[in-house]
Design goal:
The protein has one domain. About 95% of the residues lie in helices and about 0% in strands. The chain contains 2 helices and no strands. Helix 1 packs across helix 2. The N and C termini lie far apart (about 125 Å).
């Protein structure tokens, strides 16, 4: 926006206002005005959003104050009545807390051993998965090689037999043509004799 304003000022003071410069100057001024309007719209939008957020925050704070006031009043009464109870329960809580410390230590030890067992099982499972994958891949490769070998082993002799049969058929065709041509020549000679 500043660049457009500077360009318009330059064109205005450069060599006076001519027809082309005047049109360009008007376009630049219009662009600056549009940019200012867009900027004003964005600022108004931000102000409206901030006002809405402020209202929501104030409403939440008021709800919290209304909810906390009865709780605070009842907690003061509870604190005064519970002081006597705490004096009576204090030794029992000490015993319970020491038991909890021991129990938590035992649970931690067991959790650590379970974690190690899970890690070992996971590692073994991954190793087995890699082995199975290798075995399946090897088996598929072997099956593929066997299929290719069978194809070569069966198709080559079949093609050779087919070639031999084609050769025999052609040979028989040639022989049959020679016999026919010999018979037809002999038949025509025999006919000449009987006429």
């Amino acid at each position: 926006m500043t660049t457009l304003l500077a360009l318009s000022l330059y064109l205005q003071y450069d060599s006076g206002v001519s027809g082309n410069n005047s049109m360009l100057l008007m376009i630049l001024v219009a662009l600056v005005a549009a940019a200012l309007l867009v900027q004003a719209g964005v600022m108004i939008g931000m102000a409206v959003g901030a006002a809405k957020a402020q209202k929501k925050i104030f409403a939440i704070v008021e709800d919290l104050e209304r909810a906390i006031k009865p709780v605070l009043a009842s907690s003061h009464q509870l604190i005064s009545s519970s002081q006597e109870f705490l004096d009576d329960v204090k030794p029992k809580v000490k015993v319970i807390s020491s038991n909890l410390v021991e129990t938590s230590n035992i649970v931690r030890e067991r959790a650590a051993s379970i974690g190690q067992a899970v890690n070992e099982i996971t590692e073994r499972s991954l190793e087995q998965a890699v082995r199975v994958d290798g075995m399946v891949t090897g088996s598929l490769n072997s099956v593929e090689r066997v299929a290719a070998s069978l194809e070569r082993g069966i198709m080559m002799p079949v093609k050779q037999i087919q070639g031999v049969l084609n050769g025999l058929r052609v040979g028989f065709d040639v022989l049959m043509r020679k016999e026919r041509s010999t018979h037809s020549a002999a038949d025509s000679r025999h006919e000449d004799m009987f006429i």
